[in-house]
Design brief:
This protein is mainly β and about 120 residues long. It has a domain of about 80 residues: OB fold (Dihydrolipoamide Acetyltransferase, E2P) (Beta Barrel), CATH 2.40.50.1000. The chain has no helices and five strands. The protein starts with about 35 loop residues before the first strand and ends in an 8-residue tail after the last strand.
């Protein structure tokens, strides 16, 4: 199977191939919109992971930032196969199901490696 160029630099394609139609590298899903980084919190669903995305929110009244997070459901293709604790890059796609509108593009590392959280 041929690996497509998804048009996002700094993300290497996976070494293995798959026949998943919802895979951005080997299927028919196009990545558009936001590209986020987060930590995989749960990988118990079939081909779906829950990614915790941490970000800073500016509070105008106090002129300071506060830490916030959101949990995003993302499709996990079998060629990438992200597990709990992995730091992943996810990209926005068309709605793949009721709650999934993101897809895992690649695994950057483990949570314990590289100096801590993202």
């Amino acid at each position: 199977m041929v690996t497509k160029n998804i048009g996002i630099p700094d993300i290497e394609p996976p070494k293995s191939t798959c026949d998943d139609p919802k895979c951005p590298w080997h299927g028919h899903v196009k990545v558009r919109g936001s590209i986020l980084t987060g930590i995989v919190v749960s990988s118990k669903m079939h081909r779906t992971v829950v990614v915790r995305h941490d970000y800073l929110y500016y509070v105008k009244k106090y002129r300071r930032y506060e830490k916030r997070h959101s949990k995003i459901h993302a499709h996990n293709p079998p060629c990438i196969n992200a597990r709990e604790g992995d730091i992943v890059v996810i990209g926005e796609t068309r709605p793949l199901s009721k709650t999934v509108s993101f897809v895992v593009l690649g695994v950057v590392g483990r949570q314990g490696e590289g100096g801590g959280k993202v």
